[in-house]
Structures are given as C-alpha cells and as structure tokens.
Write a structure and sequence with these properties.
Elements (H helix, E strand, L loop, with lengths): L21 H15 L3 E2 H11 L7 H15 L2 E5 L2 E4 L4 H27 L11 H11 L1
Antiparallel strand pairs: 1-3, 2-3
C-alpha cells in the first residue's frame, strides 16, 4: 500500500486536501525547476509550492529535499550544493508525461485554493459574476 496521493486516483478525488506528496509532489518540483531554468534553493521551492496551494504536513523543507533526493537518483534533478537543486535532464517523453500530470495536479490545487478562500465568505459580498457564485455556493454550505 502506497502513501502516495496520485492525481488520477479516483478514491482520492473526494477527500484530497492539498497535502501533496509522493509522485505528484516530485513531478511538481521537477517542473518548477525546469520552468525556472536556474538552480533554486529548497526554501524557494517550498515558497513556490505553497504559492501554488500545496499544504505540507510536516517540515516542508524536509519533505521537499526528500522528494528531490528521489528525483536526483533518477537523474532528472541535480544537487548543486547543500539545499540547492536544478533541473538536469529527462527524455522528451518523460517531460511530456510529467507535464501532463502536473497540469492535473495544478488544476486540483487551484480548485482547492478556491474552496479554502470561499469557505468563510458570504456569496453576496464576493466580487464575482453571479454564475460563478451560483456554481460555488454549494461549497460554502
């Protein structure tokens, strides 16, 4: 039994809380490094993940460095020095696969962020179009 919350796992769709770990976290970190095009510190990676809506259950720097260590073993990430990582290399097909999985993960994170923001808000006071409020209203009740 894996403790990984995979983006395509149908059992995880209903109770997914944004606590990203396992393969989806590794893929997100790899993508962030690839998009940055330069080495990033663990602190910068944690900040970018949190900006995207990732909720870390535990010490974020430890979780991120553990995930990056795994990716370094596969050669997709290079450890430049202590706490600094960069994207290394990956086959084009692997980059494509990772990109597709990260798109799904980012969409789920955006949805989760919206739900958290709207959890305590009064729909009448939101500066959103009516159709959006009607659609999101069930999330508030």
């Amino acid at each position: 039994m894996s403790d990984c919350t995979c983006a395509n796992d149908s059992s995880a769709k209903d109770d997914w809380s944004g606590d990203l770990r396992g393969r989806p976290l590794r893929y997100l970190l790899t993508t962030i490094l690839r998009e940055a095009g330069q080495p990033l510190t663990v602190r910068q990676l944690v900040s970018r993940c949190e900006h995207e809506g990732v909720v870390f259950a535990g010490r974020a720097s430890k979780i991120v460095s553990d995930a990056l260590r795994w990716e370094a073993r596969w050669g997709r990430v290079a450890r430049c020095r202590r706490g600094v990582y960069s994207f290394n290399r990956a086959p084009r097909s692997t980059v494509y696969w990772i990109k597709q999985r990260v798109l799904v993960t980012r969409e789920r994170l955006r949805r989760q962020q919206a739900e958290r923001r709207l959890a305590g808000a009064d729909p009448a006071t939101l500066a959103l179009p009516g159709w959006v409020i009607e659609r999101l209203h069930p999330l508030l009740t």
